[in-house]
């Protein structure tokens, strides 16, 4: 079995002080992917930068205090890749992957966007470049006898069941028709599978992100934007997906919750 967890930590220095290190120490996951690390390894406590029993891959952003993804793996990776070959995003701290004997696990932090601003343009450029890479990654993995799972903060809610207030967000970045259409192409053209929706096609949710504003968490007014999206063979062997939602607001160490999936490999 292979268990993979993914979580946007919303700043790993802060999360480490509020419970991430303890969570990492207790998880049964074989691989943990983090997004929005927003720190260099030297700025992190040892329990987050070099935890005992883990191999660590870190892809920082050239923009200090921005982005950043990490992968913690109990097994030493056979190969590591940072970035996906697009010059604009190569040093942006948005993508890293590790190759294990039977599977490629990638940590993704897709741009969040903001309608009518350059941030949305950046998101669109990222999506345009990333889809062909996903197609190529699947083909190369299959040729090498591996499956693929791309986990992380995809920053797109695909369907109405993936966010509580879908009516009020139809013109918001993260639920725009063109963004949802692009994610649909990840499923159709690239042939990947959202493992949460394979096991639970009806919804609603379970949500993975709740704003810190107001009573969003208490009212479960969230978005499902943190996903594990796998090649069909691996998706078929997914036995469970759990959103590790904190029991209470004050137990949260991020505005996102870990999403943990178990696969037979």
TrEMBL record:
Residues 6-256 form the Endonuclease/exonuclease/phosphatase domain. Pfam families: Exo_endo_phos. The record marks 256 as: Interaction with DNA substrate. The record marks 155 as: Transition state stabilizer. InterPro entries: AP_endonuc_1, Endo/exonu/phosph_ase_sf, Endo/exonuclease/phosphatase, ExoIII-like. Its cofactor is Mg(2+); Mn(2+). Mg(2+) binds at residues 8, 36, 153, 155, 255-256. Transmembrane segments: none annotated. NCBIfam families: exoDNase_III, xth. This is Exodeoxyribonuclease III.
């Amino acid at each position: 079995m292979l268990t993979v967890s993914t979580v946007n930590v919303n700043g790993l220095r802060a999360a480490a002080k509020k419970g991430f290190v303890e969570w990492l120490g207790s998880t049964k996951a074989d691989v943990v992917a983090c997004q929005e690390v927003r720190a260099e390894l030297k700025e992190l406590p040892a329990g987050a930068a070099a935890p005992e029993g883990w191999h660590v891959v870190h892809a920082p952003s050239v923009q200090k205090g921005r982005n950043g993804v990490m992968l913690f793996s109990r097994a030493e990776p056979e190969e590591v890749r940072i970035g996906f070959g697009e010059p604009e995003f190569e040093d942006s701290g948005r993508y890293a992957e590790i190759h294990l004997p039977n599977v490629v696990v990638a940590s993704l932090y897709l741009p969040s966007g903001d309608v009518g601003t350059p941030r949305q343009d950046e998101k669109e450029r990222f999506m345009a470049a990333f889809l062909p890479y996903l197609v190529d990654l699947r083909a190369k993995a299959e040729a090498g006898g591996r499956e693929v799972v791309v986990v992380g903060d995809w920053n797109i809610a695909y369907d109405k069941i993936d966010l509580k207030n879908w009516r009020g967000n139809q013109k918001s970045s993260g639920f725009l028709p063109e963004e949802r259409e692009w994610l649909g192409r990840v499923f159709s053209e690239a042939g990947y599978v959202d493992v949460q929706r394979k096991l639970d096609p009806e919804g609603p949710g379970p949500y993975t992100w709740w704003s810190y504003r107001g009573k969003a968490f208490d009212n479960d007014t969230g978005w499902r934007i943190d996903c594990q999206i796998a090649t069909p063979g691996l998706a078929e062997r997914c036995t469970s997906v759990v959103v590790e939602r904190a029991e209470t607001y004050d137990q949260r160490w991020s505005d996102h919750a870990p999403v943990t999936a178990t696969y037979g490999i």
